[in-house]
């Protein structure tokens, strides 16, 4: 079976990336195409795939650079803030929305309430070291957390607020991970192109008494974030 030329070029280009090192500028596309003896189209395709893989990062008007390693987040009921700080990064959050909506049938089932009941919606852009990496929307039933808006700093840790101020004890959760393409709005918030692959996580969490706590939709840039899970028989 023949191997596509751009894949061969991509493999060779990885060696160049490793020699250059993190943060270094990649030589211009035309220079690389000449050096590798391929068309600019083939080189462009190889570079695009390395950008999607998170090995390279394009900066508009500046060029293409060797990317920093992906952030690895645990698939666990832990604070986003604590997980990033443990890796030596500075977490940040930009509040997009913090309001109340009426639960539809699916959300009501996840939160153990009736359709039409009020739900807190907290939507935030998540960042690491000042760069956007994810868009997280969390839903919590107002009937269970009536004082949430009074006690939560929406730019701070939601998990810390729930545990320290509202006495919540997380028990277990379920998470579904899939790949998607961002909507124009999502791409704009994450400062990404729509062609960039995204990782979408759907999570529901319950407390130690198996009562629903939250439903979460998290969209992460596939070039910036990876996930790790510990598996046991």
Automatic annotation (TrEMBL):
GO biological-process terms attached to the record: negative regulation of DNA-templated transcription
Keywords: DNA-binding, Transcription, Transcription regulation
CDD domains in alphabetical order: WHTH_GntR
Molecular functions per Gene Ontology: DNA binding; DNA-binding transcription factor activity
Highest taxon in the source lineage: Bacteria
Protein's UniProt keywords contain Transcription regulation: yes
Name of the featured protein: GntR family transcriptional regulator
Domain HTH gntR-type: 1-69
Classification via PANTHER family: MANNOSYL-D-GLYCERATE TRANSPORT/METABOLISM SYSTEM REPRESSOR MNGR-RELATED, MANNOSYL-D-GLYCERATE TRANSPORT_METABOLISM SYSTEM REPRESSOR MNGR-RELATED
UniProt lineage: Bacteria, Bacillati, Actinomycetota, Actinomycetes, Propionibacteriales
InterPro entries in the record: Bact_HTH_transcr_reg (IPR050679), Chorismate_lyase_/UTRA_dom_sf (IPR028978), Tscrpt_reg_HTH_GntR (IPR000524), UTRA (IPR011663), WH-like_DNA-bd_sf (IPR036388), WH_DNA-bd_sf (IPR036390)
Keyword Transcription tagged: yes
